[in-house]
Amino acid sequence: MATSNTDTTYSASSLFNQINKANGLNSDGTKVSKETDAEELQNQFLTLLTAQLQNQDPLNPLENTELTSQLAQINTVSGIAGISEKITALMSALNNNQGIQAASIIGKNILTNGNQITLSSYTDESGNTSSAAYGGIKLESNADKVIVKITNGSTEVRSIDLGAKNAGIVSFAWDGIDNYGNLRTDGNYKFTVEATQQDSGVIATTMQYSPVYAVSRNSTGDFVLDLGDKGTIKLDDVQQII
């Protein structure tokens, strides 16, 4: 039987080199300078495979197991590329859906980590003027004593004993009256929390209420909530929506 003469040698290594390129590697194990498109790789593979079959040595033909292995590897590479595209599309859709969810919070108050409390005056239907500020606490376990200390700079303004509280999120209100019975001016204050259970400390995280003014994207493409002078936070950081 006559065999075809050619200056080009087609071998199994040629096919494996193409597979390596799909994984970002040259034949010597170094990274390729430019990624090979999965469709282009598949075309190159089929071209080489056809040439290899046409020019193989009749006395040493390509083994079926070797051919099956090469086909399985190229299909795996092509399949991974397809899965990657689908995952990218899915992540994009989820991200856009998150933006829609975030937009629905605009104008509402949320509870998130922070130690700022805002005192504001308001007038009721009877014409009486009052002041109020609201804050939150997250207790890791039950506490038989919870004390909130409101400060203005380094000065303590008011100490509020909330008594015993169960684990979880606890809300509290301040009427703007300081420790000496005086009404404080409207503005931003800060607060700390001391929680104990039978004289042992309980982990307590300060939480602040903030209105949401707008939704925008940060430098990494994530949606963030604009809280005005309280900065911005990610949607995942919201603990409660009121």
Number of helices: 3
Assembly state (oligomeric): single chain
Instruction: Give the strand content.
Output: 35-45%
Shape verdict: elongated
Characterize the largest beta sheet: strand count, sense, and whether it forms a barrel: 10 strands, antiparallel
- Run of helices and strands: HHHEEEEEEEEEEEEE
Mean pLDDT: 77
**Which segments are poorly predicted (pLDDT under 50) over 5 or more consecutive residues?**
1-11
* Number of beta strands: 13
Structural class: alpha+beta
Radius of gyration: 34 Å
Helical content class: 25-40%
Distance between the termini: 86 Å
Which key features would you list for this structure?
242 residues, alpha+beta, three-stranded antiparallel sheet, 29% helix, disordered N terminus
Would you give an account of this structure?
The structure is a single chain. The protein has 242 residues and is an alpha+beta fold. It has helices at 12-22, 38-55, 64-103, and strands spanning 109-113, 116-123, 129-139, 143-152, 155-165, 168-174, 187-197, 200-201, 204-211, 214-217, 223-226, 232-234, 240-241. The strands form 2 sheets. Strands 1, 2, 3, 4, 5, 6, 7, 8, 9 and 13 form a 10-stranded antiparallel sheet that branches. The protein has a 3-stranded antiparallel sheet with strand order 10-11-12, covered by helices on one side. Helix 1 packs parallel to helix 3 (64-103). The protein is elongated. Mean pLDDT is 77; it is low at 1-11.
How are the secondary structure elements laid out?
Layout: H1 12-22, H2 38-55, H3 64-103, E1 109-113, E2 116-123, E3 129-139, E4 143-152, E5 155-165, E6 168-174, E7 187-197, E8 200-201, E9 204-211, E10 214-217, E11 223-226, E12 232-234, E13 240-241
Antiparallel strand pairs: 1-9, 1-13, 2-3, 2-7, 3-6, 3-9, 4-5, 4-7, 7-8, 10-11, 11-12
